[in-house]
Amino acid sequence: MNVLIISDSHGLEEELQTIAKRHEAEVDLMIHCGDSELETRHPALEPYAVVKGNCDFAGDFKDELLLTAGSRKILVTHGHLHGIKQTLLNVYYRAEELGADVICFGHSHIAGSEVLRGKLMINPGSIRLPRVRRTESYAILTLENDAATVRFYDQAGNEIEDLQNRVTL
């Protein structure tokens, strides 16, 4: 199962549509981790399961979603309500409460993935305003049995190889 994860697009429309179209045949689920700054029913968000970010004032997005991808549960949140810029433990504990195996979040605009106490944490970065790295990014998570692979891509669809992460869940 493949899951496209994007976040912090901050008003971009065409780019969201281009990325969705590029990967629509290869992914089973598309997630937007907030700060789209678009209306809830905006056409650019149509293929995505979207949560509310701290810059999403229009629309009625939920603060979090619990999605199923194969046998795995994915917690989707923006991260600002969990203080992810200070610690990942708060969002980890929320995932524990919900029984989630994977946590997708944004807010910091810093692309990366890691396993914390058995839970895969993924921040796809930002396709508008990346931090730390200068490359706009999004991610694709591949789930296979007990293995997960996270690949990151720039806005043009080129893989950012040094961010790839393969883990056991």
Provide structural commentary:
- The protein is mainly beta and 169 residues long.
- The chain has a single domain, classed as Purple Acid Phosphatase, chain A, domain 2 (4-Layer Sandwich), CATH 3.60.21.10.
- It has two helices and eleven strands.
- It has helices at residues 14-23, 89-98, and strands at 2-6, 29-32, 49-50, 64-69, 72-77, 102-104, 112-116, 119-123, 138-144, 147-153, 165-168.
- A hairpin with a 2-residue loop joins strand 9 (138-144) and strand 10 (147-153).
- The two termini are 14 Å apart.
- The model has no long low-confidence stretch (mean pLDDT 97).
- Its cofactor is Mn(2+).
- Mn(2+) 1 binds at residues 8, 10, 35, 109.
Provide a short characterization of the protein structure.
The chain is mainly beta. Helix content is about 10%, strand content about 30%.
How are the strands of the biggest sheet laid out side by side?
3-2-1-9-10-11
Global geometry: globular
Note the main sheet: 6 strands, mixed
Q: What is the straight-line distance between the termini?
A: 14 Å
Low-confidence stretches: none
Q: Name the assembly state.
A: single chain
Structural class per helix/strand content?
mainly beta
Query: Helix share of residues?
Result: 10-25%
Number of helices: 2
Which topology does CATH recognise? Purple Acid Phosphatase, chain A, domain 2
The number of domains is 1
Rg is: 14 Å
Architecture (CATH level 2) name: 4-Layer Sandwich
Instruction: Report the mean per-residue pLDDT as an integer.
Output: 97
Tell how many strands the DSSP assignment holds. Answer: 11
Name the CATH superfamily assignment: Metallo-dependent phosphatases
Strand content: 25-35%
CATH class: Alpha Beta
Element pattern in H and E: EHEEEEHEEEEEE
Cofactor: Mn(2+)
GO molecular function, one term: metal ion binding
Family: Belongs to the metallophosphoesterase superfamily. YfcE family.
Pfam families: Metallophos_2
